Each structure stands twice: as C-alpha cells, then as structure tokens.
Write the structure tokens for this entry.
Amino acid sequence: MRDNTLILDRRGFLIALGVAAVIALAAVGVFLIRHFFPSTLTLEEVTTQTVESVELFEYTYSANPQGASRTVITSAEVIPELTRAFDQMPATPFDGEERELAGKPATAYRFHVAGGQYVEVTQVFLGEQNVVVFWPNGEVYGSSWGRPFDGFYDELGTTDTVPGAQVPLATTRTP
C-alpha cells in the first residue's frame, strides 16, 4: 500500500507541476505577443461616424503646454486622410515614462463628429516611426505610424495660435 500511495503522490505532484508549467508558458506567450508583435487599434468614433471638422494642435509636448498652432480643417477631401491614420493603427503598449516625451514634437487632434460631439487623440513623436499615442480612453500606446506635420496642413485650413489651456489634454493610463 505504501508504494501505491507514494506513486499516487508523485503522479499528483507531476500533474500539478505540468499544469503550472503550461500556465507559466501561456503567460510568457501573452507577454511576448503584447510587447513584441503589434496589434492594431481603430478609433471607432472617428472611422464609423461623419467627421465634420478636425482641429490640429501642433506644439512641443509637456504636461502643461504653453501654447499651440491650431489648424481647423473642414475640407471633405482632407478629413478622410486624417481619420485614416487611426484605422487599424499598429500599436503596442507604451513602456516608457512621460518624462521621456517632454520637449518632443506633438500633434493633438480634436475630431468633431456629427451631433456636436468630439474625440481627442494626441501623438508625440520620439523619432522616425516611433510615436506615442494617447488614446481617448487614457490608454497610451507606441506605434510606427505618424510623423510631425511641421505646418503641412496650415494652408489647407484656418490657422491661429491658441493658449495651452485650449490644447486637448493627453492623459496617461497604460493598457
């Protein structure tokens, strides 16, 4: 009897050990997929609704921006180009810290959709194909999509300078 009990104890231990190993491998796999293989994000509020206008705020990123160049785009030909940037955007969770973003070029978008609502997104450009995106729900992602506009849209809309209080707030909460 004693030998059978010992065998059963070993068998139970090996089964528990195997289950723990499978769970650990699954957790490692999920981590690797989330951090090294980008998923895609779509800003549904912008891609599925009618966008009537877009405000672009170009500024130097800080938690409290001093001011920005604002361009208002109402052109039916240009708006789809701006909304397309947020359809199936490759994204991974942002692993950095907000202090890394200070002083970098940024563009905040305020998409005005039908019904008087608006959706805000901010991109901070760390380098070529290295963009941090503040999503409307507060989640922060890294992406290879986007580049600083450097006034590219200025002539396609109405441009003025606004105080920092009017720049959409980039909130931080990692997914």
Remarks:
- The first helix runs from residue 2 to 36.
- The radius of gyration is 23 Å.
